[in-house]
Input
Amino acid sequence: MKTKTPSLTTRLAGSAAMGLALSAMPASPQQAGNATCALVDGVLPEGCDFANEATVVRTPVGANTEVETGAVPGVSTGFSIAIDGETLVGDARVEDAARRADVALADADVQVRFDGLEINPRLDVEIAGDPQAYGPGDSAEFISRTNYPAFIERAEMRVIDMRARGGPRTVAVAPVAANGRVSLTLPEGEDLAVVHRVYDKAGRFDETVPLPLSVADDRGFREGFEEGSDNLARQRIPLSGGSITVFGSNVAQAETVEVLGEDVRPGPDGKFVIQRIRPAGTYDVEVGIRGAGRNVDFARTVTIPGSEWFYVATADLTFGQREQSGEGDAAIESSESYAQGRLAFYAKGKTKNGVIITASADTGNEDLEDIFRNLDEKDPRSLLDRFDPDLYYPTYGDDSTVVENAPTSGKFFLRVEKEQNYFQWGNGQASLAGNYFLRNERTVYGAEGRIATAAQTSGGEPRAELTFYAAQPDNLPQREIFQGTGGSVYFLQRQDISVGSETVSIQVRDEVSGRVIETQVLVYGRDYAVNYVQGVITLAAPLSATITGGLVSSAPGEGETVNLVVNYEFTPTTGDLDGFSYGARAQAWVTDQLRVGVTGTTEETGIAEQTSIGADILYRYSEGTEVSLDYAKTEGPGFGFSTSVDGGLIVDNIDPAEGDGEAYRLAARVDFKDLGFESEGYFGAYYEHRTEGFSTLDYQVLAGTGDETLWGIYGEGRPNERLRWAVYYDDYENAVGDYSRTGGAELEYAINPRLGFAVGIEHTDKNNSTDVGRRTDAALRLTFAPNDRAEYYVFGQTTLDREGLDRNDRYGIGGAVELGRGWTIAGEISEGTSGTGGKLRAEYTKDDATSYYFGYELDPGREYGSYTLVGEDRGRFVLGGTRKVSDQVRMFGENSYDIFGGHRSLTSAYGLEYTPSDYVAYTFAYEVGLIRDSINGDFDRNALSFGVRYEDDKLTARGRIEARKERGVISSIGRDADTFLITADARYKISEEARLVFSLDASKTETDQSSVLDGELIDLTLGYAYRPVLDDRLNVLVRYRFLYDDYGQQIDGSDTAGPVQTSHVFSLDAEYDLSKTWTIGGKLGARLSESAPSSEIEKQQNDAYLAVASARYHLVHNWDILLEARALHAVQAELTQYGALAAVYRHVGNNVKLGVGYNFTSFSDDLTDLVQDDKGLFLNVIAKF
Output
């Protein structure tokens, strides 16, 4: 449910045919035209009596938020009425201490607020000093940032080596106080990152997403300021109570602020804010401001309740006799009784035992016999209504905003939660993890939940846990796999993807077997950005294609493949999504080391019909020693995926595997220290078998390979600081006879801190469609580091023995140098039997968010998807960077040029942010994709984005233009398409009494309808509201909407398109208070429309005009009377109708109104209601809470 806050008026949005709820506020005597009705010695003058002066109503009052301090010593407890701390009426001995604190806070421009329902935990880590990259041996000071220190028993900073052999590994731990600081000298590691972890008294812990240290943290934090940032990756500490927020302004730079016992640093604008989550109870919020000639100390006592509720509900029931009539020879006269109603509510609250409940329902206006039916079914109409918060009028002049607290695609929402357990019915993201083969990340509508025990392991995991979902998917999933290009820009296959539905990760795979070695999930805003309209992913740092494997290599670019994996949701242009998705996972830690789990999923979407089940066992002795067994079985095809090696220009779509299949995997790893050895090291092994037909997100076992079996062992040791050794063996084979077996050993020795060497030997045995034979290679590498800023190496390898396979001789030189002033250069060049290879990388980084990079890679053994090399491969170039030109201008650009023989491609991306002032900002982006291929065809893609936003005290406006043009042929398939989109909105505060709003959504597309529909759309809305603040006798609402829809938009992904139309709709509502009880009003409406069932049928004109005049009598808590006259003119039908409506309502208590009325006309004041069945007598019952 969307709640509108503050909700100052809804009186002009109701239906006159339903009698109107008449929620208008009463006019004061001054507003009613008698300006002399002011109190004289506490008494109204003669002639100022109120018509409802004898009415007595009990009005419930909420619990006092102030703390009861008890009686004044020695006297009886009395009462007082005080203004600004001065007692005026009552017992002068009763002090209003709370009010005195309020006055002091107001004088100091400080506000204290608390909220017992909204608890939003935040945890983050900040690095002190100017942004810079850190490496082993550097000293860094880490700052803890959290808003729930009251729940934290201890905290620590954990340094993780993300590229440690065998997976991420903790290499350093430093304790730190919550919101404190700690300095740490970074240990050795390949790719260091810091994680902030905090524990509660029970040992449960929360921790942040790993923050990379090898690149500067450019999140724009100001040291010592409360930024309100959150980087939580895992949240297990249960929080209760509420949040206390203190914020202030006009603090001089020389002044210091202390709040809740913590020092708070104001910003350059003199403002500060601090929020803390506290358990339920009473607190003295002490605030101190010192310096610059003033020393202010005061306290505000607040109580965070253990139980608190907010709710609003309405029931609107109508019983009547409907008389339906028509005109002319085809007139139809009929009469029938009806009983209709609408029930709606929203509630959120918490109980004393910590249960938080959020619920909402809206049945819509239905026959009473059907009002409770189909509450759980998806309601496309209500979903569209929720997309448009300005359904009736774009503005009501009250500056209200819309917050979605109960997202649902149906008529009902419920969420019940306590600590980490919850049940929800509504819109959500179903996520299952834990089994190596089975994962699920879907956006769905339906039921989902999690149940976990309070008991936990020593590692902070619940002893037992169940997660589940049973829902209807809102969209279809798309999975795209991009091999790293050395750049940071990647084009998705789909456009107009669902906002926030993406999951972006970097995945390292074995190049031969496809085995997933490591997966790292990226964080939106920090690691990547996405253009949801254009379908473009931009990484914060370039992504290489491979990670260098062992010392011996078959080619310069050989190694473990690095992929960018993007899962996201999109609404299909064709197809039906009326199916269901089910899934569940249950797991239990039998001991602190042993976990067992089962997973099951079912997809019935019409496109994918699949059932998957899995089971897994994990024994984790320590962080570095564990054994796992995973099993999974799939029945039926799932969802396929697409792959690309050039950033998304050329895409290969992989269909899902047909039939049934299964897979199992046994893996083990043991740390030497767990075996009692002093030296560092580990051993590991794995065995995996997948049968034909097995289909999951990560694996598709097709008929081309049949059953697949792979196994291997690996180990690494470091007996001392000088010596390192490693061994490995990987074996892959499939049912069609292909196999690949590789084993080797390496030895690395440091002669002294500057000079070292490494030797290695590797044996390879292959049998596939391109290579058959065996080979043994040996390699030698000599490394020299003249200082800490430079390293050079020379290497050579040769084939000792071979049969069938080509020789693999190669020699070359390389190195990396820090040139100073932010420059780093690394490169390698080599020559061998397979050709010339090389790579070069140059980077420049400044502390003020300016960086440049250039890369070149030539791999003589490179493959380019399904393309066959024609000519000579000349490698791939990447040039890009970001630059902070000034405080107002930031620029980004990247070019990637690939010369794969006769196939040449170019991808370019440019972006600019220009912020000339605090009020206005411009953004510009331009993307280019070019393919030149004399055999497979040429292709051109150009995409342009331009945006502007402006905000000051009166005007808030933003707009964006998106354009994309594609021309050409790829693999004999035409790819011509044009997309042009405009979106804009603005709100202008003409005065305190008047508002003006504007919105525009326009699109023009010419496509093959595979990604976006083909057609045109213009949706323009203007709104005006006049709402006086002091003398509100006159209120005016105006709306104009122009809609041109050539798409015939589909609803809920169905195959049937809606009508195409061109329409102008105008409406004006006005009310004027004649007195404190009488109000006159009127409405003018016009509809000029052309519509047709589809674009193939000629549109028909359908114009109409409406006029309504009304008079209302409103006596507070007593009577409401409505008299209304209407006129409707249908132009094409040459018909004019007149009518009237009368209704009388009586208030019963505070919550109920009973009304009776008669509609003398058969048409309503809704110009979209084409059924003339509104005439007749009605009885209306309205209850509101």
